[in-house]
Amino acid sequence: MLKPLFLLFIFMGSLTLYARSEVEAINLSLQSLGSEESLNDTQVLDNTLDRYRGTIKPLYHRYTQTTAEIEHIKAKFTAEEIPVFFALIPYAESKFNPSSRGYGTAGLWQFGKQSAKNFGLSVKKGHDERLDPDKSTDAAIRYIKYLKKEFGSWYLADFAYAMGEGTLKRIIQHNGSKKISVLLKDPHFPSGTKAHFAKTLLLDAKIHYTKSEDEKEQTSVVVSPRAL
């Protein structure tokens, strides 16, 4: 007969094997963006994420309310071989509100007027295609692909999306590095971009890389005493 302590050890071992921690999920999200650094390599990212962990619950709730819409957007990004991380940008930028307006920005993707025009959207009085979820998503895909080509990695493309190409180029040049751990320490790295990246990263990790309780139960190990 197995001793209770040994049974506890086996049970804890199965949890370790099959449960995926938040750190592991975040690292997988970082890998999808082409980062060679993990959360363990960059304390400044961990500190940044800490500031925004409390915002993820309402954003995730919004995600569950927009299942059909986001699946359509994810399919577009997948077809273009863009990480699904980017499909979640509207939650961080506009709380997935197609009618949202900011300071000179509008729509799901919060395009500025010039960026919208540069990537094929019409922005006229009474006809603002930034407010069209389908057309603005297609424009966002064109923009993100352009940024990836310009900066060479997906995480830098996201930084550029949030802060602008010129600002990111200056920060990279000033630091002589493209590493997340270096760039986030720069005092000129915009706080809005930190919020954008942290929220999207945490949401991506939760949605795409963290196993649900049902999945954990389906993959749990049952150890037969006879096998020991």
Proportion of residues in extended strands: under 5%
Number of domains: 1
- Give the class-level CATH name: Mainly Alpha
| Secondary structure: helix percent | 55-70%
* Strand order of the biggest β-sheet: 1-2
Short description:
This protein has 228 residues and is mostly helical. It has helices at 4-18, 22-32, 43-52, 56-65, 67-79, 89-94, 113-118, 133-151, 154-163, 165-175, 180-183, 191-209, 213-218, and strands at residues 105-106, 111-112, 123-124, 127-128.
Polypeptide structure, described:
The protein has 228 residues and is mainly alpha-helical. The protein has one domain (37-208): Lysozyme (Orthogonal Bundle), CATH 1.10.530.10. The chain is 61% helix and 4% strand. Strands 1-2 form a two-stranded antiparallel ribbon. Strands 3-4 form a two-stranded antiparallel sheet. Strand 3 and strand 4 form a beta hairpin. Helix 2 crosses helix 12 (191-209). The longest helix has 19 residues, at 133-151. The protein is globular and about 50 Å long. The relative contact order is 0.16.
